[in-house]
Design brief:
The protein is of the alpha+beta class and about 180 residues long. It contains four helices and five strands. It has a domain of about 110 residues: Roll (Nuclear Transport Factor 2, Chain: A), CATH 3.10.450.
């Protein structure tokens, strides 16, 4: 019984370690990639259809590849003046249409019960820069994150070794 409790506790810790919170920048990137998939995409998972159609009016009738380039920068929390509500996040992005040229804009997101959702777009950048303009890249990971990852891996190894010691080994001896 005790072993089962330990296994459940370890399994619960593993699930908690694997849980992630969606970052608004990731939502914007997936939204734009989904728009670029044309009729095969599902941008309504991330934004209202009217917002998606502002960028690619006939996204559901086009072939994949309408957007030649997609770039998303780091965002930040903004006050209630944008949509009149708290808890908004703005994320700069750039898309390059094959036929219409380049567009720099900002996605305005709000937290819903099911996660972040793109509520509107703005042509203003709110002082945010894209990585190609000298802004911080999304993929940048600091030294502290590496140390936490290495420490977590070491902890998992130690827990696994401890659990293996709890499991009885094979029985030796003759049964004749």
């Amino acid at each position: 019984m005790r072993r089962a409790g330990i296994l459940v506790a370890v399994f619960g810790m593993a699930l908690a370690a694997c849980a992630t919170a969606e970052r608004p920048e990731g939502i914007v990137e997936r939204w734009l990639i989904s728009l670029n998939q044309g009729a095969a995409g599902e941008p309504d998972t991330y934004a209202a259809d009217k917002v998606s159609r502002l960028l690619v009016p006939d996204w559901d009738l086009t072939d994949p590849g309408e957007l030649d380039r997609i770039e998303v920068g780091r965002g930040r929390v903004e006050g209630p003046f944008l949509l009149g509500e708290e808890g908004q996040y703005v994320v700069p992005f750039l898309i390059d249409h094959l036929h219409e040229g380049e567009l720099r804009a900002t996605a305005i997101l709000r937290m819903r019960a099911d996660g972040w959702r793109v509520e509107a777009i703005s042509l203003g950048t709110f002082g945010l820069r894209l990585p190609s303009e000298g802004g911080r890249p999304l993929s940048g990971v600091g030294a502290i994150a590496w140390l936490v990852a290495i420490g977590s891996a070491a902890l998992v190894i130690l827990l696994t070794a401890g659990l293996m010691r709890l499991v009885p080994g094979p029985q030796t001896g003759s049964s004749t």
